[in-house]
Amino acid sequence: MAVNGAPRERTVERWCWDFVHAVELATKLAPPPPPYTENDASWEVEPAARRIAVPARPPELRVTSRSPRSVGENLAPVEVRAKLVHTFLHHELQAAELFAWAVLAYPETPRSFRSGLIRLCREELAHLALYRAHLERLGSAVGDFPVRDWFWERVENCEDAASFVAFQGLGLEGANLEHSARFAARFRAAGDEEGARILERVEWDEISHVAFAIRWFERLAGEPLDYERWRAMLPAPLTPAVLRGRPLNREARLRAGFDDAFLERLEAEPSTTTRSPR
Fold first, then answer.
1. Is residue 98 over pLDDT 80?
2. How would you label 62-73 residue by residue, b for 16+ Cβ within 10 Å and e otherwise?
3. pLDDT per residue as tens digits for the range 53-78
4. Does a structural domain hold residue 53?
5. Which of 40, 108, 181, 190 has its CB surrounded by the most CB atoms within 10 Å?
6. Using only C-alpha atoms, what is the Rg of the chain?
7. What is the model's pLDDT at position 215?
């Protein structure tokens, strides 16, 4: 689908557009605040659907088409943890970009949904800032390791807003409840208490992000969250097994609003050969 032209200046939509298209590293990692979303004047009156195919990437970010090799179990070496933090940082960047992308791609959705996406985008950028500061404490900088735009490679198959929420909110952010908890324990075992605390902060914030996704999935789909309905709305070729960590973080997922029946199905899902982005 062709992308419509740039939105009107000083609108939320233009902020999203400029963020996704930013080519300077400083602007990409820490864009200026968006217009106040509670003001009618901050939004386009009749926004067109704009589906951006790929984000702009500053030259410092070296994008690869293949996922980096696993770092293994030993996180004691500083460079190993730095590589992981760099990966986590890029995941947060992609998540923030995709929330902005969805504001542009689904202008027909309620403004309260799109305002919520802006809030989530800014929280992902706050996580990115935490990871960036810790990356520097570990003696590295953004761009020291290659990155993969795995999230972006999948979102183009999200046909509507409910599918996007199924993928991004219930899928990627749901899985991050497992990944954040697992890596927090591993960072702490490696003696990196600050890294562990950042991961725990991210896990806590993701609970509210997943709760937002559950609420809006049900509203957009017009039915209560059901495992098979969620599976059916995932963009091909993704399966639930790719969007689940091990062990399942049942406590965090229950806090977010998943029920036991859903989690039992998710936990029993057969493993897949497709690699998770984590």
1. yes
2. eeeeeeeeebee
3. 999 999 999 999 877 667 778 999 99
4. no
5. 181
6. 18
7. 98
Half-sphere exposure of 43 (CA within 13 A, CB side): 18
Residue 42 in any domain: the answer is no
Residue written as tokens 């404490």?
137
What's the pLDDT at 2?
45
Closest residue by Cα to residue 143 from 132, 157, 152, 155:
132
Residue 46 lies in a domain: no
Residue range 191-199: mean pLDDT, rounded: 98
CATH of the domain at 203: 1.20.1260
Q: Which pLDDT band, with edges at 50, 70 and 90, does 236 fall under?
A: confident
Within a domain: residue 56? no
Count up the domains in the chain and report the number. 1
Q: Which residues contact 104 (CB under 8 A, 6 or more apart)?
A: 7, 13, 16, 17, 20, 47, 49, 50, 51, 52
Question: Which domain does 249 fall in, by range?
Answer: 12-20+75-268
Task: Enter the pTM of the model.
Answer: 0.95
